[in-house]
Design goal:
With 719 residues, the chain is an alpha+beta fold. The protein has five domains: 3-200, Hypothetical protein af1432 (Orthogonal Bundle), CATH 1.10.3210; 208-340, Beta Polymerase, domain 2, CATH 3.30.460; 391-485, Ubiquitin-like (UB roll) (Roll); 489-538, no CATH class; 634-709, ACT domain (Alpha-Beta Plaits, 2-Layer Sandwich), CATH 3.30.70. It is globular, with a radius of gyration of 31 Å.
Length: 719
């Protein structure tokens, strides 16, 4: 790459008077980086030149190209920002400054210890993006060139950077609608994260390339003739499929018992026309020529994606009874699809402003609002990943306004997106005129109406229960927590005590452990801990997850069958001791455990709060043990007390099956007053899974309480 190639690309869209700024920036950067070499062995100036060229392909303004050429100068060449401002003006200096700051942020996938730092870095990056998009376009181009030269780094660094790219940068490119950057970043990330799978998919594609190209050529010839007869002018070409997208489709198809040959859109056409009317006319010609496949038509012209993408998508059974995917769009839509919001950036140069530009990046304005509202960096990170970087659904208000929400969103998410007060006063919802439960998952095109109380009302605490799926968005959960945190402290403490005691019964934890749990969550006062549970700052599910996280991470599944439960225990300081789990307390991974040395049966593993351990006279026979990584399942006894009714057992067993657990024994005992107790022995993998299951059972109609029990809670261990 050299300056002449960059200027040639820039001349395709920039006026002549803008080019000297780019030339001056290159000359300054080349002198500053003189003698510097990258790990790949290339002269350092090659990197900023490549970044600028990528941005020129996106047709960015001259200031952005200059900033791209200069973006590493302050950091690597001891050149002050004031000097850049003096030489190139405040606009270029601001872009260089923003890009330099982003370069200092650590966005690599975090460990638990530095998660807050990671979240704060992402927060700064996205807020910088909201202030001036061009900063992040430079960062995306910088990342693309770095990914192209990743082979110069160690395998560990390659995987780390590739993982970060797939988690942060490709969703960002997707939301900005820059497909060209997105698929390049995805394919390069996939190549370093899963090299064997990458080569396998690439070989499958290559093996059929000649056959595929010949077929596409035949299709284009037939279609060109039909469109010409209909008086329609169009550019027709084969549409490339990218390795990572094919891999994702292969993974989805594998779950349905299908294979590579069943992927219908490996054969794909793109048709470009002059007007929107021509798009629909071409669609009519194609559907009259070949039979459309059921459920494979999408009108993204009438209903654009949130990043501005527009096109008609259809799939038909074409020549030789082969399925064919077709995209139809105008040339302007194609430009937007390739360059995303960058296609609308030139209004900054004084051209006419795109009236739809602000609407298409409204999620960025939303981002700035959330940045002001959310108190913690981790809360912001959760909000970004759940509310912005995932697929969207579009639903309608009663007035016909469109609201975009993450896929899987519920009427409660909708209510809180419209207005916080509407969410707080929500008592029910109608979708397409029919009453639905509040955890109903909304679909594209749904018309949603919220039924709200007229008087003062607050959210239900059940809405914050992650097992009940009342909300998908972090935005809604944050608003609920804010409401609860504003309630009286005494009320929150009392409610928190009730919730904690209920969860401790679920998990079989003694009440005396409350202070220990508070310290585990870094609360100095038990009341502060209870208040946090009361207003939703700490969910009861977090307790089970925290306890489970203290055991070593589970090993990856191997081809061999899983080890029996006793192999999941390590006796500290002693090798090859036989261990088995105590029936009196039934420990599972996540429980705090201790060993009891028997006279003839090795070591029996108990929970530390087990009655038999607490009341053991011979304390010297207790020995330290810990959980080992395992995929084994552990027997757990739970007791369900409920009002007897038809269908009770069916409802319980359905939830157990949905959680993927197995019931090994079950007994039912009638009680006085039309009550019944159901005693189940289940096989669970850890406390978190058990907590999730018991929370769902607790929500079944007629259930009074759920608790975890042992087989012989008052029996002393036998020698």
């Amino acid at each position: 790459m050299n300056l002449a190639e960059l200027l040639k690309k820039a001349k395709e869209y920039l006026p002549e008077e803008k080019l000297p700024l780019v030339e001056d920036a290159y000359a300054f950067a080349a002198k500053a980086h003189e003698g510097q070499v990258r790990k790949s062995g290339d002269a350092y100036i090659e990197h900023p030149l490549q970044v600028a060229f990528i941005l020129a392909e996106q047709q960015f303004d001259a200031s952005t190209l200059a900033a791209a050429l200069l973006h590493d100068v302050p950091e690597n060449c001891d050149v002050s920002l004031d000097e850049i401002k003096t030489r190139f003006g405040p606009e270029v200096a601001k872009l260089v400054d923003g890009t330099t700051k982003l370069g200092k942020l650590s966005l690599h996938a975090p460990s638990t210890a530095n998660r807050a730092s990671h979240a704060e870095s992402l927060r700064k990056m996205l807020v910088a993006m909201a202030e001036d998009l061009r900063v992040v376009f430079i960062k995306l181009a910088d990342r693309l060139h770095n990914m192209r030269t990743l082979k110069a780094l160690t395998p560990e660094m390659q995987r780390s950077i590739a993982q970060e790219t797939l988690e942060i940068y490709t969703p960002l490119a997707h939301r900005l609608g820059i497909w060209g950057l997105k698929w390049h970043l995805e394919d390069l990330s996939f190549r370093y994260l899963e090299p064997k799978k990458y080569r396998h998919v690439a070989s499958l594609i290559a093996a059929r390339r000649a056959q595929r190209e010949e077929y596409i050529a035949r299709i284009i010839k037939v279609l060109e003739k039909e469109l010409k007869q209909a008086g329609l002018r169009a550019e027709i070409s084969g549409r490339p499929k990218h390795i990572y997208s094919i891999y994702q489709k292969m993974e989805r198809y594998a779950t349905q018992g299908k294979d590579f040959d069943d992927i219908y859109d490996l054969l794909a056409l793109r048709i470009l026309v002059g007007t929107v009317a021509d798009c629909y006319n071409v669609l009519g010609v194609i559907h009259s020529l070949w039979r459309p496949l059921s459920g494979q038509f999408d009108d993204f012209i009438a209903n654009p994606k949130p990043n501005g993408y527009q096109a008609l998508h259809t799939a038909v059974m074409s020549l030789s009874n082969m399925p064919l995917e077709v995209q139809i769009r105008t040339r302007e839509m194609h430009h937007t699809a390739e360059y995303g919001v960058a296609a609308h950036w030139r209004y900054k140069e004084g051209e006419k402003k795109d009236l739809h530009f602000e609407e298409r990046i409204s999620w960025l304005r939303q981002l700035v609002d959330w940045h002001r509202e959310l108190s913690g960096a981790e809360e912001f990170l959760e909000s970004v990943k759940t509310d912005i970087f995932i697929d969207q659904v579009f639903v309608y208000t009663p007035k016909g306004e469109i609201i975009d929400l993450p896929k899987g969103a519920t009427p409660l998410d909708f209510a809180y997106r419209v207005h916080t007060e509407l969410g707080n006063r929500c008592t029910g919802a109608k979708v397409n005129g029919k009453l639905v439960p509040l955890n109903y998952q909304l679909n594209n095109g749904d018309a949603v109406e919220i039924v709200a109380s007229k008087g003062e009302k607050g959210p239900s605490r059940d809405w914050l229960n992650p097992h009940l799926n009342y909300t998908k968005t972090s935005h809604a959960r944050t608003k609920m927590r804010q409401w609860f945190s504003h309630q009286e402290r005494a009320e929150n403490i009392e409610r928190g005590r009730e919730l904690l005691e209920k969860e401790m019964r679920h998990l079989g934890i003694r009440p005396t452990e409350r202070e220990g749990l508070a310290k585990m969550f870094k609360y100095d006062s038990l009341d502060d801990f209870l208040a946090a549970i009361g207003y939703g700052g700490v969910s009861t599910h977090h307790i089970a997850l925290k306890l489970t996280a203290q055991q070593p991470p589970p090993a990856k599944p191997e081809a061999a069958p899983p080890k029996p439960p006793q192999s999941a225990i390590r006796v500290l300081g002693v090798e090859d001791l036989v261990t088995h789990l105590a029936r009196c307390c039934r420990p599972v991974p996540g429980d705090r455990i201790i060993g009891y040395v028997t006279r003839s049966r090795g070591v029996t593993i108990h929970r530390k709060d087990c009655y038999n351990v607490v009341h053991e006279d011979e304390k010297e026979r207790l020995i330290a043990v810990e959980w080992e990584p395992t995929d084994a399942l552990f027997p757990v006894n739970i007791l369900v007390e409920a009002w007897d009714r038809v269908g009770l057992i069916r409802d319980i067993t359905t939830i157990v099956a949905e959680e993927g657990l197995n019931i090994t024994t079950m007994t039912s005992t009638p009680q006085d007053g039309n009550k019944v107790t159901e005693n189940f022995t289940l096989q669970a993998k850890d406390l978190a899974q058990l907590s999730r299951l018991m929370a769902k059972i607790d929500g079944i109609r007629g259930v009074i309480g759920v608790s975890r029990i042992g087989d012989e809670a008052t029996t002393k261990p036998k020698p």
